Amino acid sequence: MRRKIAAGNWKMNTQIQNGLDLAQAVLEGERPNHVHIIFGVPATHLAHVQAVVRNANQVFCAAQNCHQAESGAYTGEIAASMIAAIGVQYVILGHSERRDYFGENDQLIAKKVKTALANGLHPIYCCGEKLPVREAGTHIALVSEQIEEALFSLSEDDFRKVIIAYEPVWAIGTGVTASPEQAQEMHYTIRQMITGAYGQSVANDTSILYGGSVKGANAAELFAQPDVDGGLVGGAALNASEFLTIINAL
Ligand code: PEP
User: Fold this and answer.
1) Is 34 a catalytic residue?
2) Given the CA of residue 231, which atom of ligand 1 is nearest to it?
3) pLDDT by residue (tens digit) across 22-80?
4) What are phi and psi for residue 94, nearest 5 degrees?
5) Hey, what domains does the chain have and what are their CATH numbers?
6) Closest residue by Cα to residue 213 from 203, 222, 200
7) Which pTM value belongs to this model?
8) Any catalytic annotation for residue 167?
9) How far is the C-alpha of 148 from the C-alpha of 216, rounded, in Å?
């Protein structure tokens, strides 16, 4: 179902107590009922933050990664079933930091997406181009390939459970945001691709988030675009009042 979503990606930040305080402050803040809020938290925080959001209206928790295998000898990794077993419903997959620092490619991420879905999780699938690709004008082709490769072999039922996050890598953590027009162009293209693969109704029901230096000051103009359904927010999600401003821009 297409929803307005504000998802925070805490990355490898916060100790447990300040993570819990952050989640609590957002829960207690003024926020509209129609916005779905997701906290993407470190693995050590999952069960704790999940306990805080469990009974909250429209607030959820996400893992930041899972392994592609169901279980086994993968020291240091976390299985999708383990995430689901504590009641967490979302997992961020394919973040550019995972692609860059941990060598994840579309084929591997496609496997993770399937395993997450098989265990009842909703993947938040990240895609986006680096600066040289944008400068070469091949950003649409690259993002199309990322989406096709990782998502388009899913059944319609499974695809409907996926949230897409378009995150131009040049905008992540840099303070440089895509313009509303740049975001809209890509989001529109992604929705057109979904129409081609699954039909208009699935495309209309898919939430497509923008990520890359979203802040309180630029959220409203990005979210005003017809195909931008919310944001995946890094740095600004670590500050409750800034994140609440973003939530209230939806
Ligand atoms: C992210 O980590 O997904 C992200 C978009 O980070 P930031 O908002 O800090 O650019």
Assistant:
1) no
2) 5
3) 999 999 999 999 999 999 999 999 999 999 999 999 999 999 999 999 999 999 999 99
4) 75, 20
5) 4-248 (3.20.20.70)
6) 222
7) 0.97
8) yes
9) 32
